From TrEMBL:
Signal sequence residues: none
Superkingdom of source: Eukaryota
Database matches in PANTHER family: FAST LEU-RICH DOMAIN-CONTAINING, LD45607P
GO biological process, alphabetically ordered: chloroplast rRNA processing; mitochondrial RNA processing; regulation of mitochondrial mRNA stability
GO molecular function: RNA binding
Any single Gene Ontology cellular-component annotation: ribonucleoprotein granule
InterPro entries associated with the record: FAST_kinase
Organism: Edaphochlamys debaryana
Protein name per UniProt: Uncharacterized protein
Length: 326
C-alpha cells in the first residue's frame, strides 16, 4: 500500500473531485494511514476541488476523515507542524495550482488557509456543505456528515447546525433506525443545544419505528437523549419502557447500565426503574448480569449509588459515552 500511496501522491495534481473522494474512501475501508506529507498535499487538493464536490463525495470524504481519525488540529498547534509542512510546500504548490486551473493564486490560498495544521480542510468542507442550505443532500449524506462530526469530536458552527437541523427534519422518515440513532448520538457527543420541538419530532419518529430498533440502538437513543438533558414526552417513555421489557434479554450489561442511567435522568427512581425491576424478577443469571456485577461502574449506574470517591451515576453515564461508536 505504501507504493500505491506514493504513486497516488505523485499524481494528486491531476485528480478530480470524484477521484479524491474515492481514493480516501478506499484508504478508510482498508484502514490505511498515509504519511503526514501525503495528508497535507491531499487536503490542499481537496480545498482546490471544493466547488466540484457532490453531496455524496463530500460526505464520503468526511466519513473517511472520521474512520482514519484525521482530526482538526487547533490553530495554536500550527507552528509545531509548520516545519514538516514546509518541506512539502513545493510539491503542494504544484498540486494546488493544477487543481485551480494552473493559477498560483489557488495554491497560495490553500497554503495560507492550511497553516500547516492537521485536518485543516474540515472547516472549509463544512462551510461548503451548508453554502446552499444542504439543498440536494440525501438522507444518507446528511447522516454521514453528522456521524463523522461526532466521531471526530468536531463541533460545527452554530450557523451550520441551524442549517442542518431543518434539512435533517425533512428526511426523518427516510432515515433508517441506525441513522436516526447515529444522528442523535453525534449531537449528544458534540454537546449541541437543540430546540426541544426538533428533538421531540425525531424521538416521535423513532417511537413509531421502535419495533425495528434492536436493543443496542435503544440504549444509544436513551443515552443520547439523556445526555442532551431532554426529557421525552410521557407517551414516548411508556413505549420505550415497553421496548426495554420486551427486548431485555438482548441487552448487554453496558447497554442496560446506560438505559438505567438514562431512566434516572428522565426522572425515574430506582424503585420504578424498568431495568432494575427486570433484574430483580429474573429467575436465572444472564451474561449481562455477570457483566454488571463484575464492573463497579456499571453496577453503580444500574443501582444509582455513589462510589466512595463521590462519583455519581451521572458521571458514570457520561463516561460510558465513549463506548458508543456506531
Amino acid at each position: 500500500m505504501d507504493a500505491v500511496a506514493q504513486e497516488i501522491h505523485s499524481k494528486l495534481g491531476h485528480f478530480r473531485a470524484q477521484d479524491l473522494s474515492n481514493t480516501l474512501w478506499a484508504f478508510a475501508m482498508l484502514k490505511y494511514q498515509p504519511t503526514e506529507e501525503w495528508w497535507q498535499d491531499f487536503e490542499r487538493q481537496v480545498y482546490g476541488a471544493l466547488t466540484d464536490l457532490t453531496d455524496r463525495q463530500l460526505a464520503n470524504l468526511l466519513w473517511a476523515f472520521a474512520v482514519l481519525e484525521r482530526r482538526s488540529e487547533p490553530a495554536a498547534c500550527a507552528p509545531a507542524s509548520a516545519a514538516s509542512a514546509s518541506t512539502a510546500a513545493p510539491d503542494a504548490s504544484a498540486s494546488a495550482s493544477a487543481s485551480a486551473g494552473g493559477s498560483p493564486h489557488g495554491a497560495a490560498a490553500a497554503l495560507a488557509v492550511s497553516g500547516g495544521r492537521r485536518g485543516w480542510v474540515l472547516d472549509p468542507l463544512l462551510a461548503h456543505s451548508c453554502a446552499n442550505g444542504f439543498s440536494g443532500f440525501s438522507s444518507g449524506s446528511l447522516h454521514l456528515l453528522m456521524w463523522s462530526l461526532g466521531r471526530l469530536h468536531h463541533a460545527p458552527s452554530q450557523a451550520w447546525l441551524q442549517g442542518f437541523l431543518p434539512a435533517a427534519a425533512e428526511h426523518f422518515f427516510r432515515f433508517s433506525p441506525t441513522e436516526l440513532s447515529n444522528i442523535v448520538w453525534a449531537l449528544a457527543k458534540l454537546g449541541a443545544e437543540l430546540p426541544a420541538p426538533w428533538l421531540d419530532k425525531l424521538l416521535l419518529v423513532a417511537q413509531w419505528r421502535f419495533p425495528s430498533f434492536p436493543a443496542r440502538l435503544l440504549s444509544i437513543v436513551a443515552w443520547s437523549t439523556a445526555t442532551l438533558n431532554h426529557r421525552p414526552q410521557p407517551e414516548w417513555l411508556m413505549c420505550f419502557e415497553e421496548q426495554v421489557r420486551s427486548k431485555f434479554l438482548d441487552f448487554t450489561g453496558h447497554e442496560l447500565a446506560c438505559v438505567a442511567w438514562s431512566f434516572r435522568r428522565f426522572g425515574y427512581s430506582t424503585r420504578n426503574n424498568a431495568v432494575f425491576y427486570m433484574l430483580q424478577k429474573q429467575q436465572r443469571f444472564l451474561k449481562a448480569d455477570f457483566e454488571i456485577l463484575s464492573n463497579p461502574k456499571l453496577l453503580r449506574q444500574v443501582l444509582g449509588v455513589r462510589s466512595a470517591q463521590g462519583e455519581g451515576a451521572n458521571d458514570g453515564g457520561s463516561s460510558s459515552s465513549s463506548s458508543f461508536a456506531p
